[in-house]
Amino acid sequence: MSAGPTSHDYGKTGIWLIGARGSVATTATMGLAAISAGFADATGCVTEQAVFDGVDLPGFADFVVGGHDISDVSMAKRAEALVESGMLPLHLFESVRSQLVEADQRVRPGYDPRQESESQAEAARRLASDISDFRISHGLSRVIVLDVASTEAPVETVPEFTDIDMLLAALEDPSRSVLPPSSISAYAAVLAGSPYVCFTPSTALNVPALYELAVGSGVPTAGQDGKTGQTWLRSVVAPALSARGLRVLSWAGTNLLGGGDGATLADPRAVSGKLQSKNRGLRELTGGAATPLHIDNVQDLGETKVAWDHINIEGFLGSRLTLQTTWTAFDSMLAAPMVLDLSRLMALAHASGEKGHVGALGFFFKDPWGSNEHSFSRQTDNLVEWAQTMSSSTAAGTGIVDQQ
Amino acid sequence: MSAGPTSHDYGKTGIWLIGARGSVATTATMGLAAISAGFADATGCVTEQAVFDGVDLPGFADFVVGGHDISDVSMAKRAEALVESGMLPLHLFESVRSQLVEADQRVRPGYDPRQESESQAEAARRLASDISDFRISHGLSRVIVLDVASTEAPVETVPEFTDIDMLLAALEDPSRSVLPPSSISAYAAVLAGSPYVCFTPSTALNVPALYELAVGSGVPTAGQDGKTGQTWLRSVVAPALSARGLRVLSWAGTNLLGGGDGATLADPRAVSGKLQSKNRGLRELTGGAATPLHIDNVQDLGETKVAWDHINIEGFLGSRLTLQTTWTAFDSMLAAPMVLDLSRLMALAHASGEKGHVGALGFFFKDPWGSNEHSFSRQTDNLVEWAQTMSSSTAAGTGIVDQQ
Amino acid sequence: MSAGPTSHDYGKTGIWLIGARGSVATTATMGLAAISAGFADATGCVTEQAVFDGVDLPGFADFVVGGHDISDVSMAKRAEALVESGMLPLHLFESVRSQLVEADQRVRPGYDPRQESESQAEAARRLASDISDFRISHGLSRVIVLDVASTEAPVETVPEFTDIDMLLAALEDPSRSVLPPSSISAYAAVLAGSPYVCFTPSTALNVPALYELAVGSGVPTAGQDGKTGQTWLRSVVAPALSARGLRVLSWAGTNLLGGGDGATLADPRAVSGKLQSKNRGLRELTGGAATPLHIDNVQDLGETKVAWDHINIEGFLGSRLTLQTTWTAFDSMLAAPMVLDLSRLMALAHASGEKGHVGALGFFFKDPWGSNEHSFSRQTDNLVEWAQTMSSSTAAGTGIVDQQ
Amino acid sequence: MSAGPTSHDYGKTGIWLIGARGSVATTATMGLAAISAGFADATGCVTEQAVFDGVDLPGFADFVVGGHDISDVSMAKRAEALVESGMLPLHLFESVRSQLVEADQRVRPGYDPRQESESQAEAARRLASDISDFRISHGLSRVIVLDVASTEAPVETVPEFTDIDMLLAALEDPSRSVLPPSSISAYAAVLAGSPYVCFTPSTALNVPALYELAVGSGVPTAGQDGKTGQTWLRSVVAPALSARGLRVLSWAGTNLLGGGDGATLADPRAVSGKLQSKNRGLRELTGGAATPLHIDNVQDLGETKVAWDHINIEGFLGSRLTLQTTWTAFDSMLAAPMVLDLSRLMALAHASGEKGHVGALGFFFKDPWGSNEHSFSRQTDNLVEWAQTMSSSTAAGTGIVDQQ
Ligand SMILES: NC(=O)c1ccc[n+]([C@@H]2O[C@H](COP(=O)([O-])OP(=O)(O)OC[C@H]3O[C@@H](n4cnc5c(N)ncnc54)[C@H](O)[C@@H]3O)[C@@H](O)[C@H]2O)c1
Ligand SMILES: NC(=O)c1ccc[n+]([C@@H]2O[C@H](COP(=O)([O-])OP(=O)(O)OC[C@H]3O[C@@H](n4cnc5c(N)ncnc54)[C@H](O)[C@@H]3O)[C@@H](O)[C@H]2O)c1
Ligand SMILES: NC(=O)c1ccc[n+]([C@@H]2O[C@H](COP(=O)([O-])OP(=O)(O)OC[C@H]3O[C@@H](n4cnc5c(N)ncnc54)[C@H](O)[C@@H]3O)[C@@H](O)[C@H]2O)c1
Ligand SMILES: NC(=O)c1ccc[n+]([C@@H]2O[C@H](COP(=O)([O-])OP(=O)(O)OC[C@H]3O[C@@H](n4cnc5c(N)ncnc54)[C@H](O)[C@@H]3O)[C@@H](O)[C@H]2O)c1
Ligand code: NA
Ligand code: NA
Q: Where does the chain cross the membrane (chains A, B, C, D) (predicted)?
């Protein structure tokens, strides 16, 4: 790897989490500290697999975490609740408590649409300067902005969405709120010259004019909606059925979950975005099978997510076969290592000069930006190939890229 | 495809089924007739998928079926029982009954170790000449021999297995039965110069000296043990878990099945071979997880097979997640289209001059000969690539290859 | 049983099915014919169990079937579709086809709210005289009216529901449709002096003034919504958990079904009544656990119903345990024997002089009329005790009770 | 309840656990301490249900725990391991650690067949005097002996089993080991005049001569093999299917478990006893269905037990329906409250003068002694009726019964 960047070339990298005090963010932060300190293995991290051996990425110990949130409950408090719920092991929490406390001190107030008096443009500039301050004060080569905030309800498209000038004008108008919070955060990342990752199904960069601004600013972007559990399994099994010429007639699913995400998704408007994002890939993969899908908020399950799928399939001579799957997991435990993987890979993308949607990161997402590929095995091939190509093409010394 | 063989180049191809009156064989024969006559689609046939569009293969209507069996129950009788059990649709059976009756007239007595007075060499020559007679009397370009007979118990290795001369001598000795029936059938295929496929977990070509003879005779061979249900699903899911860095701790499974296969596997000796063959791939894919596995003969399930798997997985920070799968299918309905696919692809292999184990056909097998690859997605890539390469490299006119 | 009525005492009994051409009705009619003719056992009929040996009930062969429907598709046509879907065995259908054709000739046009010009009172009188004609022309001792028509949407309560005079007046007004069709049918049964059973979750007798009329007319009534599958299982398991002091925290369920019922329940208004009826008992049995529940119309499942339940339970020292159940059945195959049981038991109730809701028949219903008992084992005890008491108290000769 | 014993009348009661340092024993001891101290509810305790309100039983705080074991790992150490495995909450353990340490000091060396030089009679007398010493030194009214030791392999019947004199003679012979350890412990309980409960499938009192001695000594006895999970669920569901006239064709099951019990049952001889005990009731309840059953030792599951059942059922007109259940629980968390319930109820039995097998306690057992009833709902009725009868018939003052 003499010609490529070495870990050292990356310098220190920032991870800026939108929703920094949530379950995913807290788990990722705790895991990063535990892995860096050697208290835990990086189980669940894709970028630690053998196939990435030759790919140069920042080391876990070279990240610094900060972020935005609108909640006052600190990361440490949140972690305590996660320990209490049985998701996080107490001893691990205790061994990295001080790092959590430190990270929490780097959390700044996010954009809360219920409270703002400033214009949305002012808000975005405020958020962007939080990110820049973080970069400068910690001597970071770059800051990866990652949205892991609560899922928002989908919004109606307005003319401003497709016209940069109209959009910019509307954002300056303190009486208007033309963009949802996720898009404001994404815009802030763009303003800060930061790579941006959307781990949620929220609107974010699904505003053409905003995406145009992102591309114009030369940052790599990736999304959308982490593919961690049921949807991931579907993207594994559906292409395999299809490779055998078996025809999916219906694929019905139910999700039970508690926690913060469960509470958010109890809102029928918020859940509708999630349901769409979850089902889009399956529809593509099965070519029009019936796909009823439910998400139920079942608070007594705590941080556990249970997903049941029933797949009705047509086989040889019109025969029927069924596959049922039941998936039980702590949801944030699946998401957190992906947050770390994405941080490493977006550092690579940025160092390599990628701009706009990095379709090869579709591996991580339910609704991939920049790609129509939903098959997990093909996404795996694409990811590995991309990472190897990027890594070998990146010239030494380009590791450190200026952010504005 | 001007340079490659066209369907027409293949002429007529024979399928010679060892176990021709069993459930898989009967279903495959019925399906072939129904598809050829346009009464049914080729759902479940891999070679009918878009990705094989450019691959030249014999058409369904260009096959003729014959075979060996040791049972007196005709294919039509067997099909009636399958209709009765709910597996085969009555109307389909009725529409192709005459073809079944015809095929059954081409079934010859197989090698029955309980009844033979002839030496095993004589038996093999008898079986081989049945195959040759079939080829000649129907004007077939080639005959694909496919073993779908009852699973045998594993046998002890003896010195003759690794020494061609000793083996041939022992075969001529009427007082000895050095090879199990599956190996006699495989040997007969070799003698007849036929491509040979082992769809069962029986010993077959797992006798080094016999395999040497097969390679020497220049025929392509493929096996072993059709990967149709639970094992297939495992080969889909295990690599995907591994691609995410999730660590399988245990993968426990239970199979419930009735029918002829269930009755055979009720014998603890017969089932041991099946269990080994089913588990080998999983052990490779998971690197040493605990894999308890059971096969229960539950006759009231008829032709239905139900497989339950419980997978215990280690994720981020030592957390645990579980996946449970329940697979319910008519087993022979999964196997039969593979029998047709294998017949087509072995015709291609033979036309292309392949000799010995065709590892690229590992896609179809629990325990692939000529390959250590168990990941279904990688097997899919390998299969497609192989088929495309073979198809394009095969010169026009080579479609018809002499069999001795 | 010398003092009680004998089978003979009952004479011939009519079963009048509202929704006579539906799946449940057709299956029940076919089953009755098959059992009567000795072509099938009465598997699934409660009243054939040993514990009912001493209870005197009409024999299967002593029933005659007729009914109302608003569909033109005959019972035989419907049965053919059920055979095609794999639910009904062809040979059985063929052996009783003529009985189905005969029964279908006794089906009269039901009350179709979309088409009526007559007042609702006129409609009810027309339906009632169909029932009376049926009784007289076939020399029946009594006619049991059983509603197995499509599930209706719940209706808003209006003042007429609680005031007999207002209700009767409104019914005579041709410009008004104060009652839903199920209530018109129930009213017709009352007018005909017939025992009435509501196997659906529709409004039916849940109109206090109408129920008052029913009680006044001295007929026994029973309902509501047949407890055949998932809800039945819940009423088995929930009391057993409670007997062990285990606390249900949540009981989440999903139903997948196709067929006519599935299509009807795809209508969000129709399904809401069903969901309420399904959940009421569970809430009682678990004392306020979270019980999210879904019914999905999955037409490719045909007549099959699949129900998945996930139960999260608190045990000793706050520990958690889970039970998951998956139930797969042909729904009408579960309902049909209950229709026969209810016909026999309502004949007993009528012969015994029962009036109004027979709570002891709660065994059969999701939402029992005349009882708050939802535990299946206690309902079993109640049913058996009631039947034995009725049977022994019924004097000989009272078997035949006049209907007006 | 003026005539019956009050809690006070029982005085202090001893619980003497054979296998006192095992998982079940440790959990029961911890739970008793936690409930007595008000740190936890008695969730999972049958005797705390409303229906037992009028039944007089010893209070939780009036028990003292001691026992035998052959392991040197203390209860507190065992509890720590259970906390580590995620089964026991840390804070609860910490709050009752001192009580566990105290209880552990009352544990005496059990009978270890691998080490004994004494005759079995001497061993039994040594164990019996441990029990008597415990009773006397803690001023206990009575001591309930409860076997929760490791499952033993079944033993061959010998002539001594049916002849008291031969048995007693053999026991005095130091060169013979005619009884398995569980029977020595049961004999010790008899010698100590203690009520005896067998929570395991081991031989214990299944030695007719030994049981004769037990009856002769006038103590109540109860067993066998705690019915906590899968078997319990079967005893709930099977009778309910039967009440509906549905016919079970096969009931296949698989158990996955780790922990000490899993390790013990990995021994094919030990597991055979367990499998028999688990299946006997199901066979009775289903009348001869096929019931394949497996228990797999899956150590990575820790204390979790997962049981999967697949039930194939014949319904109306020969149709098939299936029920699948998946049960996931911490096994000892199910057993521990039953240990407490049995201690309370055996105190009642003893105070009431019951002798020999108390069939009404069949509620708690897979293989009930003194009863052929396996239906859980009927067992519930029997238990409640028995407890109420005993409680009201017990005269005041009889609470304290002499033990020899
Ligand atoms: N497996 C997974 O966990 C998974 C998978 C895919 C997607 N996601 C998505 O990740 C997101 C986070 O999930 P979670 O379980 O951590 O949820 P959570 O409710 O625990 O955390 C969300 C956090 O976002 C904060 N927040 C809300 N609005 C904000 C705003 N405008 N600005 C800044 N912060 C804001 C909240 O205060 C909270 O701390 C959700 O959108 C979820 O759908 C999670
Ligand atoms: N999904 C599947 O169905 C599947 C998958 C993988 C492997 N297989 C294997 O395919 C084989 C066939 O399965 P099936 O369900 O058709 O079984 P089956 O019992 O219905 O048929 C087996 C047939 O083999 C015949 N036979 C037995 N010994 C023979 C001999 N020495 N020579 C010739 N014929 C002989 C029998 O008479 C019978 O007709 C089995 O070995 C099975 O393990 C099936
Ligand atoms: N396990 C079960 O099958 C089950 C259990 C409980 C309740 N139910 C209820 O039983 C009913 C019948 O179920 P199904 O599967 O037979 O449905 P279906 O759709 O096959 O049959 C319903 C029949 O009712 C007829 N109908 C509609 N409106 C009518 C009216 N006003 N008057 C007379 N006939 C009318 C329809 O034409 C149709 O023939 C449904 O309400 C269902 O919810 C069924
Ligand atoms: N749900 C349940 O947990 C459940 C249900 C039914 C039956 N059981 C039975 O309860 C028993 C205990 O289960 P566990 O999970 O606590 O097992 P465990 O292995 O954790 O504990 C068994 C204990 O018995 C001790 N022991 C072994 N032989 C002994 C002897 N001769 N004398 C005294 N002590 C001896 C061992 O040292 C160990 O401490 C098993 O037999 C099990 O089959 C448990
Ligand atoms: Na896309
Ligand atoms: Na009620």
A: none
